[in-house]
């Protein structure tokens, strides 16, 4: 799918930023969406929210794990500053979810939590702004229209086909995670944020790996930041199917830790994006190693918290 998204970004006017932030990110997040909606339907708020927020920190972890792998190319020195807009949207969404879960706001619109309404509004406004920004900065990118008409329709068809395959493949994870939490004693939050989130994030991981091999770092970063924003939105969508109240208020304190970690790690991503030079390879990979280590510490703390709860 990264190959097809890369072709779409090169042969149409949407560019790598929008292709990664909206097109590829949403498609590769379909397993998370099906898992979260399924968890909402069966009434397991911890798996639903844990999957969405856990996918955020896993995606960032894997992105910078690959940055360490491709360290000699120093790809992240060439990232467009336009991804900062997506990062800001992600920060806002993490702040809304974290603050909402801490405050346990009882406000709702019909049966939908106010947090879900705010998340949806911020996401929609942010994506609209990014698309407008991309249109303004597109400039004079005159590609051959004959090449576009020959290859783009077929590429889009293949992209939609594989998106459908991804959608179907993620449906059973929530049910198996719910059973695992009941039978093993592992908290549902730990199952959702670690096991289910890792499994549903595999399409993101593969897409980012292929994008970086194609040296399309903007597609890779856009995929991760866009997918992370979409992961928060899909948790709000899961709230639609959760009938026991607010999906945000019925989660454990571990989900607050994950939301806060997502906020911090997204902030670190934005700081790394702003770099335009480093002295050597060692100084280049230090920030990436910090993020990779931070993820391991966060996951360990969640498991440790579970053992003593």
Query: How many structural domains does the protein architecture include?
Result: 1
Question: SS-based structural class?
Answer: mainly alpha
Describe the global form: globular
Name of the CATH superfamily: NCX, central ion-binding region
| Uncertain segments | 140-150
What is the count of DSSP helices, taking H or I runs of 4+ residues? Answer: 13
Pattern of helices and strands: HHHHHEEHHHHHHHH
Instruction: Please give the CATH class.
Output: Mainly Alpha
Radius of gyration (CA) equals 19 Å
GO biological process, one term: intracellular calcium ion homeostasis
Membrane topology: Multi-pass membrane protein
Organism: Salibacterium qingdaonense
InterPro entries: K/Na/Ca-exchanger (IPR004481), NaCa_Exmemb (IPR004837), NCX_ion-bd_dom_sf (IPR044880)
Fold and architecture overview:
Residues 2-125, 159-300 form the Sodium/calcium exchanger membrane region domain. The protein has a single domain, classed as A middle domain of Talin 1 (Up-down Bundle). The chain is built from 13 helices and 2 strands; from the N terminus they run H-H-H-H-H-E-E-H-H-H-H-H-H-H-H. The protein has helices at residues 2-11, 15-28, 30-42, 45-69, 83-103, 114-137, 145-169, 173-184, 188-200, 202-213, 217-240, 253-273, 281-307, and strands at residues 108-109, 112-113. The protein has a two-stranded antiparallel ribbon. A hairpin with a 2-residue loop joins strand 1 (108-109) and strand 2 (112-113). The longest helix is centred in the last third of the chain and has 27 residues, at 281-307. The protein is globular, with a radius of gyration of 19 Å. 50% of the residues are buried. Mean pLDDT is 78; it is low at 140-150.
């Amino acid at each position: 799918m990264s190959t097809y998204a890369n072709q779409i970004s090169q042969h149409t006017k949407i560019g790598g930023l929008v292709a990664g932030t909206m097109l590829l990110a949403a498609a590769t997040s379909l397993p998370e969406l099906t898992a979260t909606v399924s968890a909402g339907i069966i009434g397991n708020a911890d798996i639903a929210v844990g999957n969405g927020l856990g996918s955020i920190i896993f995606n960032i972890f894997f992105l910078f794990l690959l940055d360490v792998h491709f360290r000699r190319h120093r790809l992240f020195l060439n990232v467009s500053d336009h991804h900062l807009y997506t990062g800001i949207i992600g920060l806002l969404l993490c702040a809304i979810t974290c603050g909402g879960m801490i405050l346990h706001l009882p406000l709702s619109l019909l049966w939908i939590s106010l947090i879900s309404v705010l998340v949806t509004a911020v996401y929609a406004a942010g994506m609209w702004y990014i698309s407008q920004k991309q249109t303004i900065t597109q400039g004079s990118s005159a590609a051959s229209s004959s090449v576009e008409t020959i290859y783009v329709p077929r590429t889009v068809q293949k992209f939609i086909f594989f998106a459908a395959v991804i959608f179907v493949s993620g449906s059973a994870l929530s049910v198996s995670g719910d059973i695992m939490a009941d039978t093993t004693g592992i908290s549902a939050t730990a199952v959702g944020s670690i096991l289910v989130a890792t499994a549903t994030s595999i399409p993101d991981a593969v897409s980012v790996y292929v994008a970086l091999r194609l040296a399309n770092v903007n597609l890779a970063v856009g995929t991760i930041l866009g997918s992370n924003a979409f992961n928060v939105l899909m948790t709000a969508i899961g709230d639609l199917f959760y009938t026991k109240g607010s999906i945000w208020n019925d989660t454990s304190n571990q989900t607050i830790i994950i939301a806060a970690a997502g906020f911090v790690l997204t902030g670190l991503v934005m700081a790394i994006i702003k770099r335009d030079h480093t002295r050597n390879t060692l100084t280049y990979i230090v920030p990436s190693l910090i993020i990779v280590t931070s993820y391991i510490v966060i996951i360990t703390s969640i498991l440790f918290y579970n053992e003593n709860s």
